[in-house]
Amino acid sequence: MRSAEASRPAALPAPYGNPVAGPSPPLAQQNEDDTENSSSSPGVKNERLRLKYRGRRCPRWRLRGGDASSASSTKPRGGRRSSSRELMYDDDGGAPFEKVADTKDGIAVWSRAAPGSNAKEVLAECVFKKTPVASFWRAVCDVERYQEFVPFVKRSFVCKDTRFGSSGAVWVYNVVKAPVVGPRDFVIKIEGGPRTDGSMASTWHVPDDGVGPAATAGHVRLLTNGGGWEIRDVGGGDTAVRYRVLTDPGTALPGFLVDLANQSSVPDVMRAFNARAMCGIYEREDAEAASASGGGGGNWLLDGSGVAKELEELLAWGDFGRITTSLSARLRKMANAWETRGGNDTRR
Questions:
Q1: Are 251 and 181 in contact (CB under 8 A)?
Q2: How far separated are the first and last CA of the chain, in Å rounded?
Q3: Most exposed: 93, 119, 164, 176, by fewest CB within 10 Å?
Q4: Neighbours of 123 (CB within 10 A)
Q5: Residue 33: how many CB atoms within 10 A of its CB?
Q6: Taking CA 288 as the corner, what is the angle to CA 286 and CA 290, rounded to the nearest 5 degrees?
Q7: Helix, strand, or coil (residue 218)
């Protein structure tokens, strides 16, 4: 790229702004130019100027607000003043993330190029005030009901579950319908749980083990979809959340449009999980489970509020996806209640 000084003409004519310092022509040449200009008509002088600067970028913009070499005086496209890039290096040793946005509610969004993909990996961080860590983690693990609160998710059910409590792995089938593009479906394997430092973490990726249904007719199967959550208690009842995702919609849309869509949707996803954690649904379910397990006689798995009644209602719907999703959620709640009681149930 040419420097600002090298690309500037030696002297600017009066109609284009203030002259810029440069070598002066010999006095005899000045006299000749003055004599020629004085005897020329305005039309001839304008034509001479046009020919002289033809093919050059008009230098007038360089004089607006100062010298072009000053970063504070130049503006990139879009009208925002240029500034130095803010970079963040992750623990994975890869390329640094570059900050692309700061939302009004305190979500910082970063992105970086991903090898082998046209889309960029997006990372977002935020501290949610007065959000319990346990409730946010429950929302992350509530994969059977993602269609109830996660943006663009239209269907979600568990294909295989090896979790016990809050650790293990689960294979989940999802159907998503984002704006502009048609419906997509995918199977992801989610793994994670508590870490030794007291935080919670999970990761997901598209597995190659054949678990889950084949691509649904009329849907595009996503082959690039990975990411993770990191959740940490930072004191005062606040929860620090880091969310990262790399997904390629498998479409002919330009890469920059895909990146813009991902960057704008990531904060919405984080807000949705926080809203789910704060809505009180998990506290109500815990209270109902405690009431059912501590009630009258009968097997707590098969009483009036248990699986038998739930299965009867679901079979009446005739929707296998809803049956699988709802039963998985019900069994997950019962497993958590069983684990809370230490696995001891005297009512057999």
A1: yes
A2: 80
A3: 93
A4: 23
A5: 11
A6: 70
A7: coil
The CA–CA distances, whole Å, from 109 to 117, 139, 154 equal 19, 21, 25
- Report, as an integer, the average pLDDT of 217-234: 92
Q: Are 324 and 314 in contact (CB under 8 A)?
A: no
Q: What is the mean pLDDT of residues 195-205?
A: 93
Q: What is the pLDDT of residues 34-86, one digit of tens each?
A: 545 544 566 666 666 556 555 554 444 333 333 333 333 334 444 444 457 89
Please name the helix (run of DSSP H) or strand (run of DSSP E) that holds residue 229, with its range, or none. Answer: strand 225-235
CB 267, CB 107: distance < 8 Å? yes
- DSSP letter assigned to residue 81: P
The candidate with the shortest Cα–Cα distance to 122, out of 195, 239, 225, 191, is 225
CATH H-level, domain 87-279: superfamily: START domain (3.30.530.20)
**Separation between Cα atoms, residue 135 and residue 344, nearest integer Å:** 25
Q: Are strands 200-205 and 168-176 parallel, antiparallel or unpaired?
A: unpaired
Which of 193-207, 302-316, 317-331 is predicted least confidently?
302-316
pTM of the model: 0.63
Rounded Cα–Cα distance for residues 342 and 189 (Å): 28
Cα(346)–Cα(348) distance, integer angstroms? 6
Question: Is residue 246 pLDDT above 70, yes or no?
Answer: yes
Averaged pLDDT, 266-284: 95
| Maximum alpha-carbon separation in the chain | 116
Domain ranges of the chain: 87-279, 284-340
What distance in Å separates the CA atoms of residue 277 and residue 316, rounded to the nearest whole number?
Answer: 31
**In whole angstroms, what is the distance from residue 181 CA to residue 198 CA?**
40
Report the residue count for the chain.
Answer: 348
Q: Could you give phi then psi for residue 6, rounded to 5 degrees? A: -70, -30
